[in-house]
Amino acid sequence: MKILISLLLAAAQAGSLPPANPLPPPSSEEAQVLEPISAVFAALEAGDSAAFLRHVYPDGRITAVGTLPNGFSGVRSESFAAYAARMSPTNGFIERISSPAIELDGDVAMVWTAFTIQRGEKIVSCGYDHFDLVREQGVWKIMNLSFSSRTSGCPGQ
User: Fold this and answer.
1) With CB atoms counted within 10 Å of each terminal CB, which end of the chain scores lower, N or C?
2) Domains in the chain: how many in total?
């Protein structure tokens, strides 16, 4: 192992390592899939249930697995409509995603992405979001959202 590390360090110093290959920006279609996700996060931050419901199927589901910042632990699932009915502008949290993996097949898409949630300046939770989306009449909407959640071991905590 020490030999491998030494070789890599020597190669780096000699400038012979290949350049990093960052992920390309999303294609136009992938960017369209991310639009309702971004809109839902904006609605959550604002506590705007009407805006939230414009980007989801109301009978779709939101399912959390793990430990939530409110202390709940286990599996919790409810319809988007029920979730929206409990929304308020005082939620005070911001969710950020990173490096979404997007899969498309016609009018069906899936997005898998890491997330963090912060209240004020503090990261309170993290995990992975899994969005199922459906395009109907040219408009992408979120059919379901399942996510893992933990309150410790998060990036930036």
Assistant:
1) N
2) 1
**Confidence tier at 69 by pLDDT (50, 70, 90):** confident
Confidence check: pLDDT of 129 > 50: yes
In 24-119, which ranges are E strands?
56-67, 73-79, 93-105, 108-119
What does the alpha-carbon distance between residue 59 and residue 71 come to, in Å, rounded to a whole number?
Answer: 26
Q: What confidence tens digit (pLDDT) does each residue in 71-113 have?
A: 888 999 999 999 999 888 766 789 999 999 999 999 999 999 9
| Residue 13 domain-assigned (yes or no) | no
- Segments forming the whole domain that contains residue 81: 27-149
CB atoms within 10 A of CB 45: 14
**The two three-digit tokens of residue 3, written as one number:** 């030999």
Angle (CA) 73 76 82, round 5°: 135
